[in-house]
Amino acid sequence: MSHYAFEAHDHETCVESGVATAEEICTERGLQLTRTRKRVLEILLSEHKAMGAYDILDVLRAEGLGSQPPVAYRALEFLINQGFAHRIERLNAFVACSHLEASHAPVFLICRLCNSVSEVQSDSRKSEISRLAKRAGFAVELMVREAEGICPKCARVA
Amino acid sequence: MSHYAFEAHDHETCVESGVATAEEICTERGLQLTRTRKRVLEILLSEHKAMGAYDILDVLRAEGLGSQPPVAYRALEFLINQGFAHRIERLNAFVACSHLEASHAPVFLICRLCNSVSEVQSDSRKSEISRLAKRAGFAVELMVREAEGICPKCARVA
DNA sequence: GCTTGATACGATATATCATAACGCTTATGC
DNA sequence: GCATAAGCGTTATGATATATCGTATCAAGC
Fold first, then answer.
1. Which end of chain A is more exposed for a tag (fewer CB within 10 A), N or C?
2. Collapsing DSSP states into helix, strand and coil, what is residue B41?
3. Where is the secretion signal located (chains A, B) (predicted)?
């Protein structure tokens, strides 16, 4: 398993292949990865950190791609619906998906020092939440699993 | 395991014993369960649902206990720090703790139809998040585990 | 060509959630 | 009692998110 957010890696590849894969998937699904949507995805991919909608909007604004909140939120909604991005509930912020190839049961590890967010894939059926929900007769539709703490990089420095 | 939110139960007891236990704990810890804090706890205990800070504030306002947002947020902060209440990240809202006696590794089951929130206790060490974090060398300080879906009560009706 | 419907976008306004900062009051330890 | 800390009231503002209405674009069907 890889933890891009916490490890040195060729980051150019993350952005390029992220966008390329998203483009392929959109073509397959007959959807449009419009200029704004693509740019928002790139912005999110540019760092393994969560960004607020208004931070993203600032970039869009500077580039003349839109200046009002709905512009950012609509693009984010699209990216999230297609699984290209995730919302981090704990931060009210957004990250690019770093496991586009895989199916979805992400766990997010959020470093409170460097703000990096690592997405780890997991089998949702194995999760404690699923087990407890099943026992309670609760039908899970959506799962939020986030941990806040210190990433290995920051732990070494501290 | 009990799922008060999803089952018939003597709800008076929830409120009374919740407040009583909180009072005991505050005494032990040398803290003040002031009028406002106590009232906010009662409000939260009055239903097994998450309430927004402004909903709580409305009640306080109607009772002359405070009219500005900080009043509600301060009380909530206290209750959360003491473990008497929890924040539901997914909803930006708050619930009373329903397992005051137990230690903390709650999972929340949120019904999107009736808005009830059930708190289930779990051993945090067993959790998938802990396992994945450990593997990544990530030191977890705080965990968010929430599931949204349909509760058994609503499933029967639908 | 024209209409229709679907999708996306632009813009305004507003709703919702949260905190900083300041000064006053009350509780508590000595 | 007095000093200190804890709590509270209030104002102002910051941060996040959505409802709504109108317009542009494009493809499908006539």
1. C
2. helix
3. none
Q: Which of B120, B132, B142 sits opposite A122 (nearest CB)?
A: B132
> Domains in chain A, ordered, with CATH?
4-157 (1.10.10.10)
Q: Whole-number Å distance, CA A71 to C1' C10?
A: 9
How many angstroms away from the CA of B94 is the closest CA of chain A? 14
- CA–CA distance, B116 with B4 (Å, rounded to integer): 10
- Burial track B69-87 (b if 16+ CB lie within 10 A, e otherwise): eebbeebbebbeebbbbbb
Cα(B65)–Cα(B39) distance, rounded to whole angstroms?
9
**Inter-chain CB proximity A136 and B111 less than 8 Å:** no
DSSP H helices, B30-136, are 35-45, 53-62, 69-81, 128-136
